[in-house]
Write a structure and sequence with these properties.
Blueprint lengths: L1 H14 L1 H5 L3 H8 L1 H4 L25 H7 L1 H4 L5 H15 L13 H8 L6 H14 L8
């Protein structure tokens, strides 16, 4: 009986609207991103790309907005501030060696603006950005 009450209390606390907001960026990643992108951002083939070189996208025109506009981010249940926190955490912890020299962290306002615009063609946009990175010699063909 006591075990059941503890379980109910834990579920109630986690279901409380303020509970998710109090989570750290690493916990938010675990709860919202890990399932597809893996524990270290390694990605899962045919499901979600790796996040290890995500910082490269910040070097290409349109890459900064693209990262936020992908459906898994733009349609996430996280609020704009949480998305900014998680994205900044991912970039700092999983893609540190790929960040541009002049990297500035995402803000909630910036995330809000990017989320307001949907990508017309996710795959075409990604290909254009990757082709740009290849032309800049940031990535190799096939990466």
């Amino acid at each position: 009986m006591r075990r059941r009450l503890l379980a109910i209390a834990a579920i109630t606390i986690l279901a409380w609207p303020g509970a998710v907001r109090a989570q750290s960026p690493s916990n938010l990643y675990l709860l919202n991103c890990w399932g597809c992108h893996g524990s270290r951002g390694e990605g899962i083939k045919n499901t979600a790309p790796p996040l290890i070189a995500l910082g490269d996208f910040l070097k290409a025109s349109g890459g900064r907005s693209y990262i936020i506009q992908v459906p898994g981010v733009s349609q996430s249940s996280l609020d704009d501030a949480q998305v900014a926190e998680v994205m900044n955490w991912v970039l700092a912890n999983m893609s540190k060696g790929h960040l541009p020299d002049a990297f500035s962290p995402y803000t909630a306002g910036e995330v809000h603006r990017y989320r307001a615009t949907r990508l017309d063609d996710l795959f075409k946009t990604r290909k254009e950005i990757v082709d740009h990175l290849i032309a800049m010699k940031v990535r190799r063909p096939g990466d």
